[in-house]
Predict the 3D structure of the following.
Amino acid sequence: MKSLFSEDSLTRIYNSGVIAVLVIERVDDAVPLAKALLDGGVDIMELTLRTPVALECLSRIRKHIPEMLAGVGTILRPDQVSQALEAGAAFGVAPGTNPAVIRQAIQSGLPFAPGVMTPTDIEIALSEGCREMKFFPAELTGGQKMLASLRAPFAHLGVQFIPLGGITTDNLESWLTTPGILAAGGSWLAPQAAVQSGNWTAIQQEAAKARAIISRVRLSARS
């Protein structure tokens, strides 16, 4: 089954190992936050459409931090696909599986990963043409054992997952060594308290911790 993502994008996401998932309240925080993550070794982010400034933040990051592969999350409506593309999104993500949103993403050429939690969600996503999916919320719905059971009937189709929810530096390694994982979603990388106080050093250090774990895991997988 063909992916909605290019091979180059899939390789970059796999090598990155983590996608920083961000909620940004102030436009002026966007660029320093992206720079802190990049300096720590995290070069892929998902800006969630949970605040009115999210798309403006994306535009600024695309302009000032072009090395960052930036996408949009929490896409709930078809019209948000066009908005994300206009702001320069490299990909889109949703918390659930909405066929109308998936179809709009495919029609618009936006690489897209819907959120799944059940076999039915996966079947719908597959039937709409998606091979990469977000497993959400990952820890609360049974963690790695749950995902292994969900993946089993679909593994031969090349389905890959991005787990999000409850993942931290403490369990990142075990998630990355779980079969079928493309990368982990990292909402813990930029805590709201650190963003609101402008503690970019703390965010850079958290990103660096994640990068060290990912580098070790991916190196081990290649050896």
About this structure: DSSP finds ten helices and nine strands in the chain. The two ends are 28 Å apart (CA to CA). The longest strand covers residues 18-22.
